[in-house]
Amino acid sequence: MERIFAKSTLREFWETYPDSEQYLKTWYDTAINADWRNPADVKQTYSTASILKNSRIVFNIKGNSYRLIVKFNFEKQWIFIRFVGTHAEYDTIDANII
């Protein structure tokens, strides 16, 4: 079982962008129940996820309308939400260090 920090970040985002709500809830439910031990396990579930350095993975949300960046600690089974935003907002950040 994964632990995700912090779901409130996702909730705040979908309150601003209601069309993302079901997609983010689906991602959350999938992640909380997953047994991901490494990036390859994540790719088996989300083939379009981008594996970055510094234990970060980028997920396309709602057909790439939104981006979700998470940092993984696979050993402890922790997921830290580092960013959720529009594709345009994503283009203004460095996903490897956020």
Polypeptide structure, described:
- This protein is of the alpha+beta class.
- The protein is 35% helix and 29% strand.
- The protein has 4 helices and 5 strands; from the N terminus they run βαααββββα.
- A 5-stranded mixed β-sheet has the order 1-5-4-3-2.
- α1 runs antiparallel to α2.
- It is globular.
- It starts with a strand and ends in an 8-residue tail after the last helix.
- The mean pLDDT is 93.
Query: Rg from C-alpha positions?
Result: 12 Å
H and E string: EHHHEEEEH
Low-pLDDT stretches are none
Instruction: List the total number of helices.
Output: 4
**Order of strands in the sheet with the most strands?**
1-5-4-3-2
Q: What form results from the Cα inertia axes?
A: globular
Q: What proportion of the residues is helical, as a percent range?
A: 25-40%
Q: How large is the share of residues in beta strands? A: 25-35%
Most strands sheet: 5 strands, mixed
Distance between the termini: 25 Å
What is the number of strand segments? 5
Features:
5-stranded mixed sheet; alpha+beta; about 100 residues
Short synopsis of the structure:
The chain is α+β, with helices and mostly antiparallel strands and 98 residues long. The protein has helices spanning 7-16, 21-33, 39-45, 87-90, and strands spanning 3-5, 50-51, 56-61, 66-73, 78-86.
Question: Topology of this protein?
Answer:
Layout (H helix, E strand, L loop, with lengths): L2 E3 L1 H10 L4 H13 L5 H7 L4 E2 L4 E6 L4 E8 L4 E9 H4 L8
Parallel strand pairs: 1-5
Antiparallel strand pairs: 2-3, 3-4, 4-5
